């Protein structure tokens, strides 16, 4: 008898402890659900410093907390594919329409029926089913050092392949989504043979002046380390905002008769198909396409707002003053793989 009582006591205590744990779990569970319902996890292919101020403004307005993961765009697309429905991501934001379209065709994104989106963002900056929506525009431009180059020396990106610019051109590395998108537009406009000749000349003229970051290209041009570079326009204007006396000029290329027009890409957003926080995600989309959100992209990042009623920062060239290339943004996905093969074939770094 005496040997059984301790075991009986232990059993009672164990059952009591289990009951207490179960009560605690049930008591805490609603609190966790409420917390989760008031958050969004955003995977962002944009640098944190560029997107976080806008997301912070959204949190201040709605109280919805943002868990932000910033990484390379290609890495994030591959990560979301691998994670599938287990992905913690609710929203995907990135700086390349081609990558957004790849995410759409992989079935990662949810079509969104929102009148606010269709009123605010013209159809050419959205997927056909609204599974991704453009937020701001940028143009591939030529930045030059005003003490080393005269603007009338260049009219087209293709001019940079001329042997006269040997060792005088700074370019993004071969893995850059900006480079891949830009070359894709050139391929779609001029064909593979002309594009290959352009890339070979650009490769030879750049030499070792190949950079991981566009901000490094702008800085190198400003310091006179190289006369010319190819970057997205906003890198130049953000540099000038902090260093207004820097000897930097911007050329919007390919505006001549017969030219392909300036190469455009967009930052955009998509809602993940599996997210249980669809209403919060829609609130974020609505915030970013509305006039106040669009104005933040214009003022903070020096990008072109896509909402037709929001004005561009006055330091930028007026959008109506130049032509854009006519290649649809949705084609950037299908053009990506053969473009990467061509870049590799040419031997760009």
Descriptive notes:
The structure is a single chain. The protein is of the alpha/beta class. Helix content is 46%, strand content 16%. It folds into 2 domains: 37-137 and 265-321, D-Maltodextrin-Binding Protein, domain 2; 138-263 and 334-346, D-Maltodextrin-Binding Protein, domain 2. Strands 1, 2, 3, 4, 5, 6, 7, 8, 9 and 10 form a 10-stranded mixed sheet that branches. The radius of gyration is 25 Å and the shape is globular. Residues 1-35 have low confidence and may be disordered.
Q: What is the third-level CATH name, the topology of the largest domain? A: D-Maltodextrin-Binding Protein, domain 2
Largest sheet: 10 strands, mixed
Structural class: alpha/beta
Q: What is the radius of gyration computed over CA atoms, rounded to a whole number of angstroms?
A: 25 Å
- What string gives the helices and strands in order? HEHEHEHHEEHHEHEHEEHHEH
The top level CATH class name of the largest domain: Alpha Beta
CATH superfamily of the largest domain: Periplasmic binding protein-like II
Fraction of residues in β-strands: 15-25%
How many DSSP H or I helices? 12
Q: What do the pLDDT scores average to? A: 90
Model regions low in confidence, pLDDT < 50 over at least 5 residues: 1-35
As a percent range, the share of helical residues equals 40-55%
End-to-end Cα distance:
83 Å
Which short descriptors sum up this protein?
single chain, 349 residues, alpha/beta, D-Maltodextrin-Binding Protein, domain 2, 10-stranded mixed sheet, 10 strands, 46% helix, globular
């Amino acid at each position: 008898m005496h040997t059984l009582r301790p075991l009986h006591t232990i059993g009672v205590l164990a059952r009591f402890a289990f009951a207490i744990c179960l009560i605690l779990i049930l008591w805490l569970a609603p609190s966790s659900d409420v917390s989760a319902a008031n958050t969004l996890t955003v995977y962002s292919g944009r640098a944190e410093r560029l997107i976080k101020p806008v997301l912070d403004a959204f949190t201040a307005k709605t109280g919805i907390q943002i868990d932000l993961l910033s990484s390379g765009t290609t890495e994030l697309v591959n990560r979301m594919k691998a994670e599938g429905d287990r992905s913690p991501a609710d929203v995907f934001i990135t700086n390349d329409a081609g990558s957004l379209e790849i995410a759409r065709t992989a079935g990662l994104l949810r079509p969104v029926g929102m009148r606010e989106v269709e009123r605010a963002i013209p159809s050419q900056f959205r997927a056909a089913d609204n599974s991704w929506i453009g937020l701001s525009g940028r143009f591939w431009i030529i930045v030059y050092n005003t003490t080393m180059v005269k603007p009338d020396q260049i009219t087209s990106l293709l001019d940079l392949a001329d042997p006269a610019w040997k060792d005088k051109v700074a370019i993004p590395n071969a893995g850059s989504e900006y480079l891949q998108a830009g070359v894709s537009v050139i391929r779609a406009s001029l064909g593979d043979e002309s594009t290959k000749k352009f890339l070979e000349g650009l490769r030879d003229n750049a030499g070792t002046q190949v950079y991981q970051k566009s901000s490094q290209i702008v800085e190198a041009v400003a310091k006179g380390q190289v006369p010319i570079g190819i970057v997205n326009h906003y890198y130049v204007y953000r540099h000038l905002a902090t260093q207004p006396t820097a000897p930097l000029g911007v050329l919007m290329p390919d505006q001549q008769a017969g030219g392909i027009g300036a190469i455009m890409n967009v930052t955009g957003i998509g809602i993940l198909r599996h997210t249980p926080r669809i209403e919060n995600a829609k609130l974020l989309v609505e915030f970013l396409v509305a006039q106040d959100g669009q104005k933040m992209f214009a003022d903070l990042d020096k990008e072109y707002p896509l909402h037709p009623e929001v004005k561009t920062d006055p330091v930028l060239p007026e959008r109506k003053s130049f032509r854009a290339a006519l290649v649809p943004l949705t084609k950037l996905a299908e053009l990506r793989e053969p473009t990467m093969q061509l870049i590799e074939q040419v031997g760009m770094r």
